């Protein structure tokens, strides 16, 4: 499993996460989280993707502490992915695109996936050096730690990026964060 790096949030700011579940997930199963002071919002009306905002407390003073606290409450069937505040406004899907310096066999990519607690989804049909992975099902993996592990020179990674989607309001070109 990838090593986790602690990331402090600015004092008093909330920690935001995307909760990703299997298709057909009923988000009302998460309503109990409101009792813990969390706000919940569907991403683009998709029941399997919910934005959870965790207010900081002594137990959730860092993004990683809030992530672990949230994992303990939602259980193993929902992945908890941190939203990076410096991102372009997209919400992580749990998938990661990776471009290697050379093409690798499917077998090698599956071994790498297992080592990093990921699931290999496939190679790009047009760019054989590129592959897609996702956070292993029913697991919550600290995404910044996975991204850092992928930066290892021994892996021959040219670039890795968390795949994301943007949320738009009806009749507006701006996303829900006011960008």
List the helices and strands and how they pair.
Blueprint: E1 15-20, E2 39-43, E3 46-54, H1 63-74, E4 79-82, E5 91-100, H2 106-115, E6 118-123, E7 130-135, H3 143-150, E8 157-165
Antiparallel strand pairs: 1-3, 1-4, 2-3, 5-7, 5-8, 6-7
Structure keywords:
single chain, about 180 residues, alpha+beta, Alpha-Beta Plaits, 2 domains, four-stranded antiparallel β-sheet, about 15% helix, disordered C terminus
CATH class of the largest domain: Alpha Beta
- Kindly state the percentage of residues in helix: 10-25%
> Uncertain segments of ≥5 residues (pLDDT<50)?
1-12, 172-179
Q: How many E-type strands?
A: 8
Distance between the termini: 35 Å
- Strand order within the widest sheet? 2-3-1-4
User: Could you say which overall geometry the principal axes of the C-alpha atoms support?
Assistant: elongated
Explain what the structure shows.
The protein has 179 residues and is of the alpha+beta class. It has two domains: 15-82, Alpha-Beta Plaits, CATH 3.30.70; 91-165, 2-Layer Sandwich (Alpha-Beta Plaits), CATH 3.30.70. It is 17% helix and 31% strand. It contains three helices and eight strands. It has helices spanning 63-74, 106-115, 143-150, and strands at residues 15-20, 39-43, 46-54, 79-82, 91-100, 118-123, 130-135, 157-165. Strands 2-3-1-4 form a four-stranded antiparallel sheet, with helices on one face. Strand 2 and strand 3 (46-54) form a beta hairpin. It is elongated.
């Amino acid at each position: 499993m990838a090593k986790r790096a602690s990331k402090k949030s600015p004092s008093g700011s909330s920690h935001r996460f995307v909760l990703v579940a299997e298709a057909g997930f009923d988000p009302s199963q998460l309503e109990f989280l409101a009792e813990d002071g969390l706000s919940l919002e569907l991403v683009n009306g998709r029941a399997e993707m919910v934005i959870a905002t965790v207010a900081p407390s002594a137990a959730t003073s860092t993004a990683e502490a809030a992530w672990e606290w949230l994992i303990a409450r939602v259980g193993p069937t929902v992945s908890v992915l941190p939203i990076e505040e410096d991102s372009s406004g997209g919400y992580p899907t749990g998938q990661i695109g990776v471009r290697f310096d050379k093409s690798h066999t499917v077998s090698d990519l599956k071994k790498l996936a297992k080592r990093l607690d990921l699931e290999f989804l496939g190679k790009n049909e047009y760019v054989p050096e590129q592959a897609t992975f996702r956070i292993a099902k029913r697991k919550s993996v600290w995404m910044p730690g996975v991204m850092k592990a992928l930066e290892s020179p021994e892996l021959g990674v040219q670039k890795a990026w968390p795949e994301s989607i943007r949320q738009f309001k009806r009749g507006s070109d701006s996303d829900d964060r006011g960008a």
